[in-house]
Design brief:
This protein has about 300 residues and is α+β, with helices and mostly antiparallel strands. It has 8 helices and 7 strands; from the N terminus they run ααααααααβββββββ. It has a 7-stranded antiparallel beta sheet, with no helix packed on it. This is FGD2 protein.
Length: about 300
Amino acid sequence: MQEPEEKRIALELLETEQAYVNRLHLLDQVFYTELMKEAKTGKTVPEEVVKMIFSNISSIYQFHAEFFLPELQKRMEDWNRNPRIGDVIQKLAPFLKMYGEYVKNFDKAVELITAWSEKSPPFQELIADIQKRKVCANLTLQHHMLEPVQRIPRYELLLKDYVRKLPPHSPDRADAQKALEMIFMVAKHSNAAIAEMERLQNLWVVYQRLGLEDDIVDPSNELIKEGPIQKISTRNNSTSEKYLFLFNNMLLYCVPKVIQVGAEFQVHLRMDVEGMKVRELEDTEFPHTFLVSGKQRTLELQAR
């Protein structure tokens, strides 16, 4: 007799989980442990750097090795008597929130590995030495570190498939459906955390380019668009290069600095978006021109 489809998917979940725990073991018990041991001698990198690279990988490893994998194994051994995994995954789902921290830290971790590999040859040598071992399968540390980032989307895909293949009256239908919703929420939570972090990072870079003016630096602002623009001077019919930053609440009219020490731009005018009007102009001499008028003043600008 052929195995039912849902059992095949449940077995795939178990097999990928075993491989995943081996990968986590490599990250936590081999890379992290050995790099930490070397860091303590003071010859490679500061201990703090190693901790920052591996974030909360130890908690993730312990959770999967000591709780989730054994639960899954027990359940699959008992499948013929109790064919279900929905309840086990429901127990797992809340703990997956701890991935938020790891995923958020991932880019920073990769940057640190690159930077310290250049700065500290012994650090680079130790990583290269571990990477040569059979257990690494010719893959880099960065490659192995990507695995936890991809694990939650993998659960989501397998579980979606599992729910689809369940017979209509399966005793696991309600539990599996609920488990899928929970995993979906965790994946969303982790993606939202990354998006928010990227937004704040990009915002900070923009604030630095503007010279960190006190009344402009606000984490709740949202940058919508930025780019160069020509300011038209009606007095002598000429144009000069300016730069605009449009936020959700204000338009910053800036002048590029000739000598870029610190800031890249100087803010000449800040216009509130509230009550601001934009009107296109028909000008044969200057095409693509428009007027921006706010409470503060009116600008005649020309786009590319």
